[in-house]
Amino acid sequence: MVKCITLRWFGHLERLAESEMTKVVILGDGGVGKSCLMNRFVTDRFDEHSFHTIGVEFLNKEIELGGETYTLQIWDTAGQERFKSLRTPFYRGSDMCLLTFSIDDPPSFKNLEMWRKEFVYYADVKADFPFLVVGNKVDLERRVEREEAEAWCRENGDLPYIETSAKIATNVEASFMMCLKRWANIESNQERLTMPDTVQLDGGGSDRRLCSCSS
Amino acid sequence: MPHGVVVEWRCAEDETSADSDWAVINSAAVTFTHHNISDSVEISTPRRNIRPISIELIDLRSYRLGQDGSLVLIQRDGTTHPGLAFHSGSVLCFVEVLLRYVAVKKSEKDCNLYLVSDKKQAAQDEELLAMNLVPQRRGPGGGGAQGPSSAQQRVWGFFNNLKRDPYTATTGALSKFYDAVIYTGMEDYVRDAEGRDDDVAEIFHSLNGFEDLEPGFELLTKKRILNARPEVERLAAITHDEFQEYVDIDGRVLDVEQLKQRIFRGGIHPNLRRELWCYLLGHYLWNQTYVQREERKREHENHYYIMKQQWKTVTEDQESRFSGFKERRSLIEKDVSRTDRNHPFFEGEHNPNVTLLHDILMTYVMYNFDLGYVQGMSDLLAPILYVTQDEPTAFWCFVGYMDMVYRNFDMDQSGMKQQLKDVHQIVRLVDPELMSYLEVRDSANFYFCFRWLLVRFKRELNYASTLRLWEVLWTGYPCPNLHLLVAVALLDTEKDTIMENKFGFTEILKHINDISLRIDIEATLKKAEAIYLQVKSSPRVPDSVRTVLDLPPQEPQDPHEPQHSPSWPPQQDDRCGGGGDGGGEPSSSGSDGAVDSGGDVVEVLNSLGIVGVVSNMIGSAVRHISGDDDMVDAQLEVPQQARRRGETVEECYESALSHQFV
């Protein structure tokens, strides 16, 4: 078997030296497809029999929005209640959160409330935090109605809702983009609030949880 | 470093469909066809199904060359790619091409590791070297570092590093100072309480001129508190014929401890595994005859099917008012369908072995409803089912395994936290250098070992290696916590990669997750046992580590006196072998003599104001040079942490675990 390893030069493809690193956490019950959503988004692959996650994993993915390159650092955790104390420390410093359930699994939908509370508590974030509610597995027979999910989102601070399938690659990239846009909006609003002629005593910028990519 | 240079690899067969494949991997795909240079080196690789690799050169941190001509690429974020096997010698062609774009520096510590550096920085280094300002370690000139001006050179070296990477240089230096204080202090205290003041003065003096702070961690390596690590041999697996020598005419197993030691030393031949696993996991009893064994087997079988009937007959109506049961069932269903489905034994749709996994786990829920089903259990069961290939047998062997590891699944995870703490204790003793590094990078919680420990390395190893490791662990030799030493051994193997690449918490986590399925289990077991023997033979081991490794408590004796003869490794003529291991030692703990935390020394230093002086001194240097205000908080936190550690390791750990990791 002969394979090739290649060094290629993309002459005009100058990458920004510093792209913004934003942290995304995917939460939801065990088996709703958190890892599969992440893998579909980052590598565009789907493995029907991939392992359930133990501990935490993360993947990085660069994404462009409005001419700027962002690096999403996507964190995927084990969903079982038992591992809560080892999962929650990773919530700190998050910029976005995907609350995930499976549309063929009503209990996973009911637990969204629990996940949202757990995240808000441990990540210590404000009410306008960019959540995105994701109903995964639209390729399967539906047992949670779309209206039901949308109603829940309305009652919980008008959260955006999207339905996806990691298996058949429906809306996966769109959901991450949606989340990023929402985050970018909130960020720019905050920037507008910090007036340029205001003297800031704490020396920092806004409350942005950003770090520059060390490239 | 040039932007836009990409190292990519993919299967040659994919070449035709490559462009579309590529398009979905990288958002920059549209420009794929516009490249104007393309250097190719042909390679062959034994592994199938490797995903295409593409790395922007700017993201490449280092690469490792294997003895067999393979090449592993490591990215800045810790991503560690599968090894690529080159045709003989062609790996050099790859390196040659690579060198057109980047400068590469060979790691000083690990001769197979090559660090990619900025060409500008490399040029600067060379200039400095030419000016003879940067200290050379064991250069061809010989003895350069011992010269009279070496202290000055080190000061320069320290500041050179400070300029390049102020946070690391400073906190690294500070934590080295702390470890030196704690470890050398402990040693000196035990040896000679009166001489303590002199030693403290010596440490202070050496810090005064930044001696020993640069290069490397010489202050630590100079004063080792452990003996050298011995060489360890392992044997071939025990075979059926060899096992028969341990069995009497009625089927009782004699010399159980010696047999266990034999299994520890080489593992079990595959065709004997089924039988011996039943013994090791308590399904069979060693001292029973063939007849008694059959009887016990029948009883166990009946017991199993009774419990299986219990959950099988729960109706949907019952289940609607039995949420605890329903939740467990739903999670088991989800998890068995994603447990080892790439292994031939469990692959394919409607595989009956997957159903068996499900049924055994459901029956375990009825056997131990309080524990129920926790994620990770299916990973522990699957290899047992594969080896025993019998439903009730697999169940009872699984019960035996769970009896050993049930604390991994504690509701509050205290069993897992304890194990992470234990690993921390061992690493602190056997590798203070790595410990300092991890502390500086907020990684002393050892969270990246979580998956290793939860399912006993099952996700990290292929089946053959998992089976081998587990049967060795089940023997309880050389100590019940061998799995923790396996973790320490693996960290020892990865240490240079982690440190030379300057990985932080997230990068370490990623790297550790990525080395899965690339672990040499026999070498790791050798190293784990060697570390055990090293600790056991050393005179001044803190009691905290002694407890973890089941060593007798330290006796308040003259350290120059020979130690009493160790029971591991067993003597050839000693039939019972390590029988003395399990206790029986007079517990002359000598709590007045043994110092296990070194807290006293830190206190002394505090009272002398040394800690404050040093941190302020270095702190202001950092502020001055980096001009970065955030840096101040970061480096000032280090002394506090160290002080806490000196007093109560547990408290410090708890708080580290409850805080963020990143």
Your description of this structure?
The complex is a heterodimer of chains A (215) and B (662). With 215 residues, chain A is of the alpha/beta class. Chain A has six helices and eight strands. Chain A has helices spanning 34-43, 84-87, 106-110, 112-123, 146-155, 172-193, and strands spanning 3-9, 20-28, 56-65, 68-77, 96-102, 131-136, 161-163, 211-212. In chain A, strands 2, 3, 4, 5, 6, 7 and 8 form a seven-stranded mixed β-sheet that branches. In chain A, α5 (146-155) links the parallel β6 and β7 (161-163). The longest helix of chain A has 22 residues, at 172-193. The two termini of chain A are 35 Å apart. Chain B is an alpha+beta fold and 662 residues long. Chain B is built from 28 helices and eight strands. Chain B has a five-stranded antiparallel β-sheet with strand order 6-5-4-8-7, with helices on both faces. In chain B, a hairpin with a 4-residue loop joins β4 (60-65) and β5 (70-75). In chain B, α21 (482-500) packs across α23 (521-537). Chain B is globular, with a radius of gyration of 28 Å. At the A-B interface, β1 and β3 of A face β1, β2, α2, α13 and α19 of B.
